[in-house]
Recover the amino acids of this structure.
C-alpha cells in the first residue's frame, strides 16, 4: 500500500513522499494552518492529512491523529462552505471507522453526513457514504437495519432519478441477504440490480460480478433453466465490457466458464461440461479451479463408466487440496461413489450377508460348547455364575455409557471452541482485508488531488514554496529517487531475484555513497527495503485480481525465490497470510 502511495506522490512537486524530516514538515503545515485563511489553509490541511495517511496503516496512534485532523479539516471546510471537500472528507472518515470495526461510530455519524450531502446535492459522495452506512450495519450483524437502510437508499435514488444509486442499493440488498444465507431474496435483488445497472457502461464491472453471483446462486438452488438463460446474458455482457474497456477481460471469461462447467455437470450434460473443462485447463487456472476441473472430469468419467480414469481424477483432486478440510469431504464422497460403481453392488451385499451369517453361526457354536462345559463342570454353581456374569455385563455397560457420555461432552466442547476460534480468525481476516481495500479507495482519492497539487506548484503559491523549503534532502536527491523508481518499474526490474545495485548506480550516473544517502534521506529506507516494499505491493495486487495464478508463481514473478520468505514478509506487512488474503478476495469477487 505505502509503495503505491510512494509511486504516486514522488512525482508531486512538493515531494510529499519524503519519509524523514516528518516533524519539521508537519510543524510547518500546522503553522500554515494556524496563520492562513481560505484556499491556502484548505491546501495545508490536504497536505498534512496526506502525510498522516501514508503513515497511518497499521499504526493506531497515527490513525487517531489522522481522524482528529479530518475532524478539524471537516470543520474548516464547513466554515468555508466547500461542499465537495466535505463529501470526500466524510467518506474517508466513515471508511476509517469501518476499517477499525467501529461500526457504532459510523451508524451514529452517517445520517447527519447524508442529510448534509443531500442538502447541498453532493451526489458524487452521497451514495458512497450510504454504502459505508449499510456496511456498518452488516459488520455489526444488524441485518434487519441494513435491509431497511438499503430500501430507503433505493427509494431516495428513485425519487431523484439516480440510476447508479438505485442499482447500488439493490446490489447492497442482495449482499445483505447473501450474508444471511437467504438465497431466494439474494437472487431476487441481484436480478433487480441487473435490470438497473446493465445499461450503464460505467458500471459494467459491477454488472459482470452480479451475473456471476446470480448464476452461481441459481445453480445452488437447482434453477438450472434460469441459470442457463442468465449465463447467456452474462456472456453478452462480457463482450460489451471488452468493447467498452478496449481490453480482454480474462477474469470475466474465467467466471463464465466456471458457471457453464458447474451447470452442465449438475444437469448431467457431460459432453458439454467437458468443453468448459478444456477451456479452464487452457488458461492455467489456480489450485481451486483446477480442483473443480478434476472433480468435474471424475464425474464425467464415472458417467462413462471409465472408472480407472475417474479414480485418477479424484485422486489428483485429493492430492491437490491436501488438508483443506472444507473441500476434502466432497472429493472423498466422490471417490466412494466411483469405488461403489466399479464393483457389483448386489454381489457386495451377498458377500456381506454370508460373512455376517457365518460370524453368527461361529458365535453360537462357541457359546453352546461353553454352556455344555459349564453344565458338566459347574452345575451346582450355575445360578451364581449367571448372576455374576449379568452383574459384570451391567457394570461394563454402565462404564461404556459413562465413557461415551464423557467423550461426547469433550467432543462437543472441542467443536464449539474450534468453531468460535475459526469465526474469530475469519472476522479478523475480513476486517484486515476491508482495511486494505478501504485504503485503496483512499489512494484513489489522493490520485484525484494530484492535478490540483501540480497546478498549485505551477502557480508559484507561497504554500508550495514554504513546503518545498521544509523537504528533507535537496532537489537533486529527490530527482534521483524518482529516477530510481522509474528504473525499477521499467520492465519490472524490481521483480528480479538478484538486483545488482552497482548496475543501477551506473545506469543512474551517480556514485554509491551519494545514491544510498539520497534514498535514505528521502524515503527513510535502504535501497533493499525500498525494492522489497515494491515487490510486496505488486504481489498483493496480483493476489487480489489474478486468481488463475497460484501463490508460489505470484511470489516468483514478484522477485521472491523463497516461499517461506514471501509468506513471512507478507504477514509482517499486512498482518494476514497470502493464502488468507486471496481467499477473502475471491469471496468478495
Amino acid at each position: 500500500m505505502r509503495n503505491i502511495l510512494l509511486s504516486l506522490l514522488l512525482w508531486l512537486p512538493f515531494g510529499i513522499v519524503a519519509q524523514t524530516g516528518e516533524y519539521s514538515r508537519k510543524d510547518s503545515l500546522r503553522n500554515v494552518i494556524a496563520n492562513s485563511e481560505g484556499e491556502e489553509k484548505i491546501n495545508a490541511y490536504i497536505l498534512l492529512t496526506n502525510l498522516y495517511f501514508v503513515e497511518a496503516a497499521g499504526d493506531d496512534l497515527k490513525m487517531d491523529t489522522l481522524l482528529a485532523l479530518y475532524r478539524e479539516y471537516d470543520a474548516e471546510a464547513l466554515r468555508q462552505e466547500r461542499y465537495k471537500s466535505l463529501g470526500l472528507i466524510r467518506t474517508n472518515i466513515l471508511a476509517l471507522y469501518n476499517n477499525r470495526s467501529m461500526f457504532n461510530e459510523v451508524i451514529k455519524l452517517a445520517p447527519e453526513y447524508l442529510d448534509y450531502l443531500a442538502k447541498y446535492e453532493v451526489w458524487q459522495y452521497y451514495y458512497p457514504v450510504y454504502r459505508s452506512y449499510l456496511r456498518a450495519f452488516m459488520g455489526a450483524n444488524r441485518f434487519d437495519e441494513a435491509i431497511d437502510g438499503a430500501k430507503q437508499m433505493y427509494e431516495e435514488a428513485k425519487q431523484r432519478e439516480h440510476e447508479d444509486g438505485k442499482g447500488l442499493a439493490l446490489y447492497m440488498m442482495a449482499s445483505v441477504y447473501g450474508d444471511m444465507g437467504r438465497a431466494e431474496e439474494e437472487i431476487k435483488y441481484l436480478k433487480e440490480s441487473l435490470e438497473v445497472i446493465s445499461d450503464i457502461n460505467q458500471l459494467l464491472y459491477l454488472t459482470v460480478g452480479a451475473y456471476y453471483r446470480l448464476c452461481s446462486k441459481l445453480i445452488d438452488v437447482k434453477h438450472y433453466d434460469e441459470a442457463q438463460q442468465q449465463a447467456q446474458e452474462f456472456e453478452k455482457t462480457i463482450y460489451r465490457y471488452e468493447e467498452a474497456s478496449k481490453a480482454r477481460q480474462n477474469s470475466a471469461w474465467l467466471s463464465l466458464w466456471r458457471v457453464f462447467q458447474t451447470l452442465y455437470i449438475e444437469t448431467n450434460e457431460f459432453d458439454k461440461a467437458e468443453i468448459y473443462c478444456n477451456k479452464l485447463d487452457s488458461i492455467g487456472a489456480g489450485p481451486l479451479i483446477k480442483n473443480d476441473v478434476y472433480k468435474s472430469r471424475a464425474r464425467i468419467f464415472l458417467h462413462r463408466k471409465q472408472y480407472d480414469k475417474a479414480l485418477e481424477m479424484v485422486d489428483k483432486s485429493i492430492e491437490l487440496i491436501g488438508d483443506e478440510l472444507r473441500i476434502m469431504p466432497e472429493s472423498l464422497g466422490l471417490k466412494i461413489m466411483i469405488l461403489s460403481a466399479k464393483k457389483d453392488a448386489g454381489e457386495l451385499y451377498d458377500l456381506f450377508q454370508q460373512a455376517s451369517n457365518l460370524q453368527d453361526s461361529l458365535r453360537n457354536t462357541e457359546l453352546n460348547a461353553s454352556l455344555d462345559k459349564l453344565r458338566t463342570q459347574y452345575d451346582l454353581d450355575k445360578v451364581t455364575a449367571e448372576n455374576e456374569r449379568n452383574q459384570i455385563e451391567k457394570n461394563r455397560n454402565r462404564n461404556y455409557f459413562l465413557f461415551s457420555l464423557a467423550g461426547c461432552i469433550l467432543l462437543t466442547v472441542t467443536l464449539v471452541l474450534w468453531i468460535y476460534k475459526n469465526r474469530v480468525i475469519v472476522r479478523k481476516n475480513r476486517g484486515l482485508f476491508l482495511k486494505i481495500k478501504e485504503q485503496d479507495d483512499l489512494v484513489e482519492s489522493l490520485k484525484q488531488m494530484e492535478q490540483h497539487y501540480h497546478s498549485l506548484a505551477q502557480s508559484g503559491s507561497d504554500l508550495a514554496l514554504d513546503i518545498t523549503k521544509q523537504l528533507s534532502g535537496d532537489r537533486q536527491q529527490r530527482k534521483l529517487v524518482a529516477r530510481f523508481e522509474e528504473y525499477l518499474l521499467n520492465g519490472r526490474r524490481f521483480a528480479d531475484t538478484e538486483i545488482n545495485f552497482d548496475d543501477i548506480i551506473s545506469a543512474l550516473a551517480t556514485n554509491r555513497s551519494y545514491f544510498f544517502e539520497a534514498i535514505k534521506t528521502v524515503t527513510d529506507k535502504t535501497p533493499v527495503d525500498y525494492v522489497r516494499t515494491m515487490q510486496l505491493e505488486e504481489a498483493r495486487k496480483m493476489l487480489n485480481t489474478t486468481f488463475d495464478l497460484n501463490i508460489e508463481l505470484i511470489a516468483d514473478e514478484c522477485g521472491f525465490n523463497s516461499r517461506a520468505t514471501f509468506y513471512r514478509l507478507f504477514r509482517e506487512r499486512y498482518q494476514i497470510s497470502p493464502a488468507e488474503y486471496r481467499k477473502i478476495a475471491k469471496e468478495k469477487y
